[in-house]
């Protein structure tokens, strides 16, 4: 058991590594990780397994952000997208290496860990991954 590790830190770790959970009862994958399967409820207790997402998915919807915070000054406007991973879970991430006008719904994307977000003065939590066009 890893209950001694603060919940906050575990969540940061999973966000950096795209680690979710898979229910040992029904196989449902969740991200961020869950302690209990939303489908199985109590039956899943003790059966939740760590699950590494493959890092590939497609754009469900997106929005172009023009009013960027100070630390994004050099790269605005930028694109935030809801991405459906191949495993079926959805998450929100910035898209990089693509012009806003070239983003398409359904576009295949993959996780990139090259550019980590910076900590802002306000202590804003940035995801450790971003997504870029696949291939
Ligand atoms: Zn389940």
Write a concise synopsis of the structure shown.
The protein has 135 residues and is mainly beta.
Structure commentary:
The chain is mainly beta and 135 residues long. It has 2 domains: 7-52, no CATH class; 56-133, Beta Barrel (OB fold (Dihydrolipoamide Acetyltransferase, E2P)), CATH 2.40.50. Helices cover 8% and strands 33% of the residues. It has 1 helix and 8 strands; from the N terminus they run αββββββββ. The chain has one helix at residues 7-17; strands at 19-23, 29-30, 48-52, 56-65, 78-85, 90-95, 108-112, 130-133. The strands form 2 sheets. Strands 6-5-4-7-8 form a 5-stranded antiparallel sheet, with no helix packed on it. The longest helix has 11 residues, at 7-17. The relative contact order is 0.17. The mean pLDDT is 82. Zinc ion binds next to loops.
Keywords:
135 residues; mainly beta; OB fold (Dihydrolipoamide Acetyltransferase, E2P); 2 domains; five-stranded antiparallel beta sheet; three-stranded antiparallel beta sheet; 8% helix; 33% strand; elongated; binds zinc ion
CATH-defined architecture of the largest domain: Beta Barrel
What gross morphology would you assign? elongated
Number of strands: 8
The ligands found in this model are: zinc ion
Give the overall pLDDT as a whole number.
Answer: 82
- What is the radius of gyration computed over CA atoms, rounded to a whole number of angstroms? 16 Å
Low-confidence blocks of residues: none
Helix content: under 10%
CATH topology of the largest domain: OB fold (Dihydrolipoamide Acetyltransferase, E2P)
Q: How large a portion of the residues is in β-strands, by DSSP E?
A: 25-35%
Strand arrangement within the widest β-sheet reads 6-5-4-7-8
The N- to C-terminal Cα distance equals 38 Å
Biggest sheet character: 5 strands, antiparallel
N to C succession of SSEs: HEEEEEEEE
The helix count comes to 1
CATH class of the largest domain: Mainly Beta
